[in-house]
Amino acid sequence: MILRRVIDHVKAQHWTAVFLDFIIVVAGVFIGIQVSNWNAENADRRIVEKYLADIASDVRADIVELSFTRDAALSRISAADYVLRQAGVDNLSPAFSLTTSTDTSRAIGLTSIDIPDPAAPPRESRDQLWSLITAVYVYDTTRSAYNALIASGKIDLIGDPEITRALREYYYLVDGLSATQSRTIVPGRQMAIAGGIAHGMSPDGRIAEADLVGAVGEDPSLAAVVSAMREYGGLHILLCDSLEGKANELLQLLAERNK
């Protein structure tokens, strides 16, 4: 329709009308492109908001998982403290030092990690002390939404540097906890299980309190294993607390975005 009208105007040499038709065509194309871009931006915005809502749900699930991990570590520390004290190891340190390094300076230092002082295990569970000492609940994150956001290439469309920073820091700590579990805490558990088996103790069996305390008191290597599990419990709690703090910060930022 427009094309036929332009041809008619050219034939009639109505140049003003031709110019106006040209302006109408250009304006229509421009408006069409802008509307298309606006629709695409709106679609991207809705997609990003859906990713962030799913990430918030994942982080809330992570916080529940962290509570299970922390509770198991506290039980481990409680049982280890009790057995060591009953075995005559009274000089239990309230903290231990962890050798650390930084990737930038390669400087080696020591980080002090506090070990909680929980109540002793209840009397009715004291034939399960060895099981409690060797039990490790391994935290497992839920990160499918974050992985999908990264794979989509749309993380920069969040448009909020604070949220982007908090996301990256949170999942950096998630990776740190997972790596520490796989490289230190789980191997430490295997070491403890092997030490117990050498004394005829199964990690899932029931052992009389007196027998366990006697074995730990007589064998410094077994006492060292119990001490190591206590220390790993402190490390586990430290990492869980750090991650939960970052999780709550991220959830707060996401909640403020939706206000």
How would the global form be characterised? elongated
Sequence stretches where pLDDT stays below 50 over 5 or more residues = 35-40, 104-109
Q: What's the order of the H and E elements?
A: HHEEHHHHH
Distance between the termini: 48 Å
Helix content: over 70%
Find the count of extended strands (DSSP E, 2+ residues).
2
Rg over CA atoms: 31 Å
The chain-level structural class is mainly alpha
* Percentage beta strand: 5-15%
- Across the major sheet, the strand order is 1-2
Number of helices: 7
Mean pLDDT: 83
The largest β sheet comes out as: 2 strands, antiparallel
Short structural summary:
With 259 residues, this protein is mainly alpha-helical. The chain has helices at residues 2-11, 15-86, 129-134, 144-152, 161-198, 209-218, 220-257; strands at residues 95-101, 108-114.
Q: Can you tell me about this structure?
A:
This protein has helices at 2-11, 15-86, 129-134, 144-152, 161-198, 209-218, 220-257; strands at residues 95-101, 108-114. Helix 5 (161-198) packs antiparallel against helix 7 and helix 6 (209-218) packs across helix 7. The protein has a two-stranded antiparallel ribbon with strand order 1-2. It is elongated and about 105 Å long. The two termini are 48 Å apart. With 259 residues, it is mostly helical.
Keywords:
single chain; 259 residues
Secondary-structure map with pairings?
Layout: H1 2-11, H2 15-86, E1 95-101, E2 108-114, H3 129-134, H4 144-152, H5 161-198, H6 209-218, H7 220-257
Antiparallel strand pairs: 1-2
